[in-house]
Amino acid sequence: MIEDLPAEYERFTIEEVRPAGENLTIRYGGRVFGGIVRCLLPGPDVEIAIRPGGEVFVRYHTVETGQPGRVAHMMIRHPTGSGWAEIFSDIE
């Protein structure tokens, strides 16, 4: 768990959440992202916390880490504990 948000993350408000089969699709900051795999979330409380009005923290790939602008990592504040809950990772 990360206690302090690293500088490379951007903070957004979740505008919409839609279940899409095994995934969740969220709209945040005028963007749409559908890569959140529900069964990989660290518990049902985390899925419930991914809701409109909640915050999502996003890091994007750079030239050094992959395709620039593509989502590399997403997390939210852990709803029942301290720190962060990872909701998506495209980090090798």
Q: Give the biggest beta sheet.
A: 6 strands, antiparallel
Q: How would you sum up the global shape?
A: globular
What value does the average pLDDT take? 92
Q: What is the overall number of helices?
A: 1
Number of domains: 1
Which regions are unreliable across 5 or more consecutive residues at pLDDT < 50?
Answer: none
The secondary-structure class comes to mainly beta
Could you explain the architecture of this structure?
The protein is mainly β and 92 residues long. The protein is 7% helix and 47% strand. It has a 6-stranded antiparallel sheet with strand order 3-2-1-4-5-6, with no helix packed on it. A hairpin with a 2-residue loop joins β1 and β2 (23-28). The longest helix is centred in the middle third of the chain and has 6 residues, at 44-49.
How are the elements arranged and paired?
Elements: E1 10-20, E2 23-28, E3 31-37, H1 44-49, E4 55-60, E5 71-77, E6 84-89
Antiparallel strand pairs: 1-2, 1-4, 2-3, 4-5, 5-6
List keywords for this structure.
7% helix, mainly beta, 92 residues, 1 helix, globular
